[in-house]
Amino acid sequence: MELEALVSRKFSKYHAYVWLHRKLRDCTSLEECATVSRELIDSYIGNRMIWEELNYYKENHSLLGKHPAFAEFRRRSELLKLPVKELVRRLRQVENNIWRVKSELAKGDKPHLDAIRRERLAGYEKELADINRLLE
């Protein structure tokens, strides 16, 4: 199942990379070029990480497990094992974490940490969606 998800993400990252590469040629401002370039680099790095995982599996017939998706898969399987009471407790904790990260981003006092904070926020929001889905 993990490999299937990785292959699906690989296609997405590759198509995003190709589309952003074309878009980079049509930039009209410096800010737009910087934004598109950052997204292009992120897509390339994501695509490359997935390629490394799949290539390792091809050669060794086992998972490397370094891609962030594997941490997401492990987190989801751990959530499935939790009783309802623990899920509710985790729900409150994740909501507090989301509030904290959003307030850190709103302050804007450390812009060099914004990318990391956005990644954390996205992870917490995915976890919140998973918990809500399990509680329904």
Q: How many domains, as an integer?
A: 2
Given as residue ranges, the uncertain stretches (5+ residues, pLDDT < 50) are: none
Global mean pLDDT: 88
Query: What general form does the structure show?
Result: flat
N/C terminus separation:
24 Å
How helical, in percent, are the residues? over 70%
Structural class: mainly alpha
Number of helices: 5
Characterize the biggest β-sheet: none
Strand/helix succession: HHHHH
Describe the structure.
The protein is an all-alpha fold and 136 residues long. The chain folds into two domains: 2-60; 82-135. The chain is built from five helices and no strands. Helix 4 runs antiparallel to helix 5. The longest helix has 31 residues, at 30-60. The radius of gyration is 18 Å and the shape is flat. The model has no long low-confidence stretch (mean pLDDT 88).
